[in-house]
Write a structure and sequence with these properties.
The chain is α/β, with parallel strands linked by helices. It contains 10 helices and 8 strands.
């Protein structure tokens, strides 16, 4: 596992593109994350609240932590004091809870709305219609401690790169549309989070601004 060269390869591909790398560090111990940190990475993503909270406590405080996994409302309070961006918001009820917890800490928490673009039923996310309705809703406008800064999506897990590209292109089209919409003051659509280790190159070609890359940096995960 050559973390330094893995990072260099990805950053070379990122060069000249308006995109940032989120190093997905789930299941990886702090000493491995520290190696990536020493190579200059500062944005790390986790998909489990407990793991994210534990790593926040022991790793350098200039790390920008992103929550990239499905987030349950009863877990928001554990990450509200420090999380920089929540990628995976898929309901108004979750946004309301994030707003409530952010208010306690006198923070504004940046969020992405997750859009369902894959053919798989297991993926979470809003439909295009639900997304657009939420962005102009009075309920969203009332949430003063959150900011919607973009959208996120996950392509179908498939070897068919044409399908992956179609799904990313569809999400970029939705992103472009909602970026032009008249929305509330707490909405500023700038980020398009799509692309992981197996498809980040396609995602970047299709306009991603945030790629979530784990195994291509750290090697395959051991879930045992």
């Amino acid at each position: 596992m050559d973390i330094k060269n893995n990072i260099k390869k990805i950053q070379d591909f990122l060069s000249g593109k308006p995109a940032r790398l989120v190093a997905v560090s789930k299941t990886k111990p702090a000493d491995i994350i520290k190696k990536a940190y020493e190579e200059g990475l500062r944005i790390f993503g986790e998909n489990k609240v407990q793991e994210l909270s534990e790593k926040y406590e022991i790793l350098p405080k200039d790390i920008e932590w992103h929550m990239i996994g499905h987030l349950q409302r009863n877990k928001v309070k554990y990450i509200a004091p420090f999380v920089a961006l929540i990628h995976s918001v898929d309901s108004l009820r979750l946004l309301m809870e994030i707003n409530k917890q952010a208010h306690k800490y006198e923070r504004t928490i940046n969020c992405l709305l997750q859009v369902h673009i894959a053919e798989e039923d297991t993926k979470f996310g809003l439909s295009e219609e639900e997304l657009k309705e939420m962005l102009i809703s009075k309920e969203l406008e009332a949430l003063k401690n959150i900011r919607i800064v973009g959208v996120m999506g996950m392509a179908t897990f498939t070897e068919n790169q044409d399908q992956v590209r179609r799904e990313f292109r569809a999400l970029k089209n939705i992103f472009d549309q909602v970026a032009e919409m008249e929305t509330a003051d707490n909405v500023s659509i700038k980020e398009l989070s799509m692309g992981m280790s197996g498809d980040y190159e396609i995602a970047l070609e299709e306009g991603s601004t945030l790629v979530r890359v784990g195994s291509a940096i750290f090697g395959e995960r051991n879930y045992a």
